[in-house]
Amino acid sequence: MPRCGKRVDVETRLYEKIDKRRPDECWPWKGYTHKGYATFRIGSQKHHAIRIAWELENGVLIPPGMEMDHLCNNRLCCNPAHGEVVTHSENMRRAWARGRIVNQGQRGMGKHFKDTAAFKAFMADPRSWHEKAADHGISRSTAYIWTKQGVQKRFQPKVSGA
Asked: Are residues 75 and 131 in the same domain?
């Protein structure tokens, strides 16, 4: 990348940080990440790299409020063919269906458990909260809160039509 104040266009900067492979493969991000996502800076603003790659590839700006769904389920993939423009609710519905989040209305638990079954196994474990914490790979404070404050009742999936 040129130095001494020379500007480099966005596309060149972006693709310097992408390990571009075959069109059907994931293109891993080699740059900065934020919360597990490939993150690219334009000026002072941070953007998801797949969003910029998709816009450059398709020549169309993604409307505000729309998101990119990683069809390959790889947050570091920047292959525009692996992304689809969707609404936030559709993105969350798909993440739920793929087991990336435990419950649509819940924040935080998805990062602790890979799927619903793992969360249910934790809650069904009859041992004390401090014993469960170590075996399930979560902090003791989180285990205490979930066990003692009945979090399983607050985060049950909503039943449609009820």
From this structure: no
Alpha helices in the chain (DSSP H): 10-16, 49-58, 88-97, 116-124, 129-136, 140-148, 151-154
54 and 89 together in one domain: yes
Q: Indicate whether 1 belongs to any domain.
A: no
Q: Tell me the pTM.
A: 0.59
Question: Given pLDDT bands bounded at 50, 70 and 90, which one contains residue 115?
Answer: low
Same domain, 13 and 83: yes
160 in any annotated domain: yes
Q: List Cβ<8 Å contacts ≥24 apart for 80-86.
A: 80/50, 80/53, 80/54, 80/56, 81/23, 81/24, 82/26, 82/27, 82/50, 83/50, 83/51, 83/53, 83/54, 85/54
Does 2 fall in a domain?
no
The tens digit of pLDDT for each residue in 57-106 reads 999 899 988 999 999 988 899 999 999 999 998 988 888 788 776 554 44
Range of the domain at 124: 103-162
